Amino acid sequence: MLEKTFYKSMLSKSFPFPVKVTYWDGKSVIYGNGKPDIEIIFNDKIPISSITQNASLALGEAYMDKKIEIKGSIQKLIWGAYESTDSFLRAGKFRKFLPAQKHTEEQSEKDVQSHYDIGNDFYKLWLDPTLTYSCAYFTDDNPDDLEQAQIAKIHHILNKLHPQKGKTLLDIGCGWGTLMLTAAKEYGLKVTGVTLSEEQYKLVQKKIFDQNLQDVAEVKLEDYRELGDKQWDYVTSVGMFEHVGKENLGQYFADVAKYLKKDGTALIHGITRQQGGASNAWLNKYIFPGGYIPGLEENINHIIANNLQVDDLEMLRRHYQRTLEIWDKNFNHERDKIQQMMGERFTRMWDLYLQACAASFESGNIDVVQYLITKGPSGTDLPMTRKYMLAK
Questions:
Q1: Contact criterion met (CB below 8 Å) for 242 and 270
Q2: Considering only 22-31, 109-118, 151-160, 161-170, which range has the smallest mean pLDDT?
């Protein structure tokens, strides 16, 4: 009886639309007015103490273990929880911030490899052919084409640098190499990519040799903090600072400044919270160990503290929502193969991750921001208006 009272209190005002809830005793209740298109089924009781201590962790694990089933859109359900002012996701008593985490070079390597070294074959099943694992950039010409949107994102980033042929570029956290190799082939830059993922390193190395780019491209399996005193004209970093941890953000931007030549330009692209930095216990345990989403003001303060100049900011929240929705559609199209490869618990976990993140972007709980910054005030290298950024 106590559990039912608690669940009713938690769920009855958590969504701005009707939701059907079926409890472990088989009894169903509809919370809200109207016909629900989402049903939450509790196959087992989730301890009240687990939910009040950390709702995201308790409910995420319960879904992975099939103690909870959801009929209908998980994304819509989580979006609704963010939208409702009375939601358990917004209630202060259910928030629990993580303690400081280790981000030594050894720990960072383990964290990165735990996510990105799942296997290239896994990512190839649901990413686009460029294997770009970050927010795409959708234009009127490519509203549903993920591959073209990812290529557009690469060009959008490189165009913002206004790069000059023959100059050098460092890509911190180069992923599977699409950005750095595009910069080499299409913009005439000499590029260096750095990653801690062995799977990514091997594939980028192969691409460099297959495309005969050895004279203009190199990839390093190395921590970005250990690149020495070398400097580059341009620095890019996409989806990277979310992995360095709150305690290392200042050092991250200090290294960006260190690796930039005088008057150099950097484009830093990453997930940011406009409301301030935060961590998520479930994501940290199962998806991104060591992850931390910094606040907008937090990043700006680090940029300024390291004598870097902010030249442009662009928010791409809706683009990442759309990217995740396509990823999840692709993922579920290959769900049987993924489940055979990785197991049912992993598959449920990953589907939940993709839909939860889409809901978080949709609700404005998180954003993705491109920071165009220079080492010193921008001079004649950057045009006077933003029109050049939209060049095709």
A1: yes
A2: 109-118
Residue 202 makes CB contacts below 8 A (sequence gap 6+) with none
Strand pairing partners for 234? 169, 265
Q: How many angstroms separate the most distant Cα atoms in the chain?
A: 72
- Which residues lie across from 169 on neighbouring strands? 191, 234
Q: For residues 11 and 214, give the distance between their C-alpha atoms in angstroms, rounded to a whole number.
A: 58
**pLDDT at position 3 over 80:** no
Question: 378 in helix, strand or coil?
Answer: coil
CA distance 98 to 96: 7
pTM: 0.90
Please tell me the distance from the alpha carbon of residue 21 to that of residue 42, in angstroms, as a whole number. 8
Name residue, tokens 């980028």. 204
State how far Cα 86 lies from the chain centre: 27
Residue 93 burial class via C-beta count within 10 angstroms: exposed 0-12, middle 13-18, buried 19 and up: exposed
- CA pair distance 362, 357, nearest whole angstrom: 8
Least confident of 218-222, 278-282, 326-330: 278-282
Token look-up 């870097």 returns: 308
C-beta of residue 299 within 8 angstroms of C-beta of residue 371: yes
Write out the catalytic residue numbers: 357
The answer to which of 31-40, 84-93, 117-126, 257-266 has the lowest mean pLDDT is 84-93
SS3 155: helix
For residue 184, give the nearest of 150, 149, 211 by alpha carbon.
211
What tokens were used for 211? 């495309």
**Residue 18: C-alpha distances to residues 39, 42, 77 (Å):** 9, 17, 10
Contact status, residue 160 vs residue 370, Cβ threshold 8 Å: yes
For 131: left if phi > 0, alpha if psi spans -120 to 50, otherwise beta; the answer is left
Q: Alpha carbon of 362 to those of 316, 318, 328, 366: distances in Å?
A: 11, 7, 15, 8
Total count of residues recorded for the chain = 392
pLDDT at 98 over 80: no
219 Cβ partners below 8 Å, 6+ apart?
Answer: 174, 177, 180, 192, 193, 194, 195, 201, 204, 205, 208
